[in-house]
Design brief:
This protein is of the alpha/beta class and 570 residues long. It is built from 17 helices and 25 strands. Strand 12, helix 14 and strand 13 form a beta-alpha-beta unit.
């Protein structure tokens, strides 16, 4: 059994002045309260308190000062771990900058990012031990390699110091009076984090985020939530992801809430059952997987009609203010521990049907919108103010406008201004200039509109727009949303193919193997074609997908779980 913390009542959540304020204030207000539950090896979950976070941040930061790397770039890569984020805070609050790097990229790209970032130390978790040892000779400017979970033969160089050694050095240095880190005055306008965009174009830019950017985004995230210290979350997303860093870690820590670090995607459901979270922050692919698991189990038990009847009855009762969801759908929500009440979801469009289904079960899905260059939060649906298809209203301190090419256009490019907007792209003044309008608004590259109530609707990506021979613009994301609810199609990408010299809208469909069991290619194609033809009946002529292709393997995705469109052959 896991222990309960004996704190009475919730501490009102207040904005923070900087990232150090998060760590210090949380120690004062929550002290020995558990911040993280995490695993080492295959042992049971360990606890990591708010007080321990402050102690280790101060120790790591002071050790960096002692070693001469306090005010430089610190690369951090690997799995989610308390000391990953302790290092992140130490790097960002000592005058240097954190460089969180995707754990799943090729070693050559890891080398490229570390060199481009001019990082002088690399901190890494167990799953990166082998990779870092193999590429260390290619990183002559790195002064220290710091494993968080060292394994046998980890000391491949005299530059290696374990995180335990770093923390011990910092503690000793603090005891001797070294206050260069703890007394360091934070410059809010200086770069504190350098994040390489994953995107789907194959080209990564270095996004420079200042302390002001990160603090503004963390504060906005908290103010848009209805959570407090009594909430319990599960950390599932990769730790280099800006959404995870700002919303899934900083903001949750500001609440004084608890976080269980999921040790493997294979163990998600098992960990949900043990930990019983009441809130989650996810990307659409994981929400879609959870939704699919529910219906697969229902169909397996031949209870589909019964569940749909219960959902209809529940929605009817809700209309009259009678909420029976907890009782009616206890078996469904029990798969996630039984306490789950809300999911904040961002990163890509989510099918409105999934949101409606979860709401019927008693779980509110709040779609949001963010981009790395905005640290990342721009907008989110708030509890009790949800609009389907929308990504919500702009968060506090963030302004959004739509730049149309022509006043008669229904949509335009989404542009953002606020303290959360990046400083620019690292050592790339040309790309930085291109990213902003002449009057200083950041151009997101996303296309959409804002309704009369201030809700933002995204219709596509500017770079993905398909221009037909008749001059019409079609956004593939819009058509893919029409395909998403079709159960026989696991996933689909809409692109354009040349047919007789003319561009033709083409739906590339991956059949759902659970529902499309035919092995004959022609029969599978006929099923996919019939489903797309049904959708075409609801679309204007220029948006019809006249060509269909079948693909057996799922599309390749990046670690942000977005389909890499540039890898789909024309």
């Amino acid at each position: 059994m896991r222990m309960k913390n004996n704190l009475k009542g919730a501490v009102p959540v207040r904005p923070v002045e900087n990232l150090r304020h998060i760590v210090y204030r949380n120690d004062e207000e929550y002290g020995d309260k558990t911040l993280y539950w995490y695993k080492e090896d295959k042992e049971d979950f360990h606890e990591y308190s708010y007080h321990r976070m402050r102690v280790e941040v101060d120790a790591i930061g002071t050790a960096f000062a002692e070693l001469g790397v306090m005010d430089v770039g610190i690369a951090i890569t690997g799995d989610v771990h308390p000391r990953f984020f302790a290092t992140y805070y130490a790097a960002t609050t000592g005058g240097g900058y954190a460089v969180p790097i995707d754990r799943d990229i090729h070693p050559d790209q890891t080398v490229n990012f570390i060199i481009r970032a001019e990082a002088k130390a690399v901190v890494y978790t167990r799953n990166q031990n082998k990779k870092i040892a193999e590429i260390a000779d290619l990183l002559p400017d790195v002064k220290y390699f710091i494993p968080i979970q060292p394994e046998e033969n980890f000391r491949f160089s005299d530059k290696v110091k374990t995180i335990d050694e770093i923390i011990e050095l910092g503690r000793e240095s603090l005891e001797k009076g070294n206050r260069s880190f703890v007394d360091h005055k934070i410059d809010m306008s200086k770069m504190s984090a350098l994040l390489f965009t994953s995107g789907t174009t194959g080209t990564a830019k270095g996004v420079m985020l200042s302390h002001k950017n990160l603090t503004a985004a963390a504060n906005a995230s908290v103010l848009s939530m209805s959570y407090d210290m009594n909430n319990t979350f599960v950390s599932i997303l990769p730790p280099h992801h800006s959404y995870e860093i700002t919303c899934g870690e900083m903001a949750i820590q500001m609440l004084g809430a608890e976080i269980l670090i999921n040790d493997s995607l294979k163990h998600i459901m098992k960990n949900f059952a043990w930990y019983k979270p009441n809130a989650l922050m996810l990307v659409p692919l994981i929400v879609e997987t959870m939704h699919k698991k529910i219906w697969d189990e229902v169909k397996k038990r031949k209870m589909e009609k019964k569940l749909k009847f219960a959902m209809g009855l529940s929605n009817f009762l809700l209309f009259f203010g009678i909420d029976m969801r907890q009782k009616l759908f206890a078996q469904v929500t029990g798969a996630f521990g039984g306490n789950l009440k809300s999911i904040v979801c961002g990163g890509a469009p989510l099918s409105p049907q999934i949101i409606k289904d979860f709401y019927a079960f008693g779980i509110t899905v709040l779609e949001g919108y963010g981009i790395t260059e905005c640290a990342p939060l721009v907008a989110v649906n708030s509890p009790g103010k949800v609009k389907f298809h929308s990504v919500g209203q702009p968060v506090k301190g963030c302004r959004v406008r739509i730049d149309k090419q022509d006043e008669s256009d229904e949509t335009g490019e989404i542009c953002v201004k606020g303290d959360n907007v990046m400083m620019g792209y690292f050592k790339d003044p040309v790309a930085t200039k291109e990213a902003f309008t002449e009057d200083g608004w950041f151009k997101t590259g996303d296309i959409g509109y804002i309704d009369k109530d201030g809700y933002i609707f995204i219709t596509g990506r500017k770079k993905n727009v398909i221009i037909l021979s008749n001059g019409k613009n079609v956004f593939p994301e819009e058509l893919e949303e029409h395909i998403a609810p079709v159960p026989e199609i696991l996933e689909a990408v809409v692109t354009v193919r040349e047919t007789n010299g003319e561009p033709v809208l083409t739906a590339i469909c991956v059949p759902n193997p659970d529902l499309v069991t035919e092995t004959d290619d022609e029969r599978v194609y006929a099923i996919m074609k019939s489903k797309i033809d049904e959708i075409n009946k609801t679309l204007p002529s220029y948006k019809k997908m006249l060509r269909v292709e079948v693909r057996r393997e799922p599309f390749e995705r990046n670690t942000a779980k977005k389909i890499m469109r540039y890898k789909i052959k024309s």
